[in-house]
Design a protein that fits this description.
Number of strands: 12
Order of helices and strands: HHHEEHEHEHEEEEHEHEEEH
CATH topology of the largest domain: D-Maltodextrin-Binding Protein, domain 2
Largest sheet: 8 strands, mixed
Mean pLDDT: 90
CATH superfamily of the largest domain: Periplasmic binding protein-like II
Structural class: alpha/beta
Oligomer: single chain
Number of domains: 3
Low-confidence stretches: none
Shape: rod-shaped
Length: 298
């Protein structure tokens, strides 16, 4: 097997034209350079240099190895540059999973900032409703996933980075008798027809758990599973709904929005990453951008 370091010594001899000049360039003694070349010739099984006057020139085999040594040197330099870019977060690849209502207020501004500041980072972005995204993270199919999870619910092998607490608001048709109140007790909505706004899962669970704590179960007459559509059904007078605050960035003109208490339903949004995930700069930059987007959304 050819020794790459000895090939670089040969390259220095060929480019400088003599063993002495190569030794000066490399900081070796001429004897050490000659020994390295002799060892490389033994590995190659062929002569690599021939004497010409006071200097040397490469044989055909020597020229071949010199060209390959130059190519190796270029590849090493390219690898060092690529590694530095990765280390500084200028490049990389991230797989991100998110749920629909986190897209516009959280994911979009975070990715816009990532693209602006680190355009070399590639992002594989996929919507995960209604699937549970945590297996995607645990099984290394995703680097980060936005999830709704209670503060006290840990997951083996996954670290939950808190982004924001997203409280639900009551959404009523304009002219509804309860619209006269600035704040509603959740129990005020017990006898109302309900318009669903969530997929079955942790977001809907936050609503159902709060209603249970208030002593009732909501009577759903429409299942929309979409915040904008739910507002349209409410505006049409089909019922009332509970919609999280970041899902009300563009409220329908035909509805009114009121705070809810006793209790206030809240969905807790986290970024889930593997405990064993290396601290790659691109991932750190994305998590910082998600935290900033969450702070701006509240």
């Amino acid at each position: 097997m050819l020794d790459v370091r000895r090939m670089q010594v040969l390259r220095a001899v060929v480019s400088s034209g003599s063993v002495t000049a190569a030794a000066t360039r490399l900081g070796y003694t001429p004897s050490a350079v000659s020994q390295q070349v002799a060892a490389l010739e033994k590995e190659a099984g062929m002569a690599l240099l021939e004497r010409v006057g006071r200097g040397v020139r490469p044989t055909t085999a020597g020229l071949l190895l010199t060209e390959h040594a130059a190519a190796i040197s270029r590849q090493v330099a390219e690898a060092e540059t690529a590694l530095a870019d990765l280390r500084e977060g200028r490049t990389g690849r991230l797989s991100v999973r998110y749920f629909a209502t986190a897209g516009a207020p959280l994911v979009a501004p975070a990715l816009a900032r990532l693209r602006r500041d680190h355009p070399g980072v590639q992002v594989d972005l996929k919507l995960i409703d209604p699937d549970d995204p945590l297996p995607e993270v645990k099984e290394c199919r995703a680097d980060v996933a936005l999830v709704v999870r209670a503060h006290d619910r840990s997951v083996d092998g996954v670290r939950l980075e808190h982004l924001l607490d997203d409280p639900y608001r009551a959404v009523l048709p304009k002219g509804h008798p309860l619209a006269a109140k600035r704040v509603l007790d959740l129990a005020d909505l017990a006898d109302e027809p309900w318009v669903g706004s969530e997929w079955p899962g942790p977001c809907l669970d936050a609503v159902l758990d709060a209603c249970s704590a208030a002593g009732f179960g909501p009577g759903f007459v429409v299942e929309s599973e979409d915040h904008a559509t739910a507002q349209g059904f409410v505006a049409a007078g089909l019922g009332i709904s509970l919609i999280p605050l970041i899902g009300l960035r563009n409220p329908h003109p035909g509805v009114v929005v009121r705070k809810v208490r006793r209790p206030e339903p809240v969905r807790v949004i986290h970024a889930a990453v593997r405990d064993s995930a290396p601290a790659e700069p691109a991932l750190r930059v994305l998590l910082d951008a998600l935290r900033d987007a969450a702070a701006a959304a509240t």
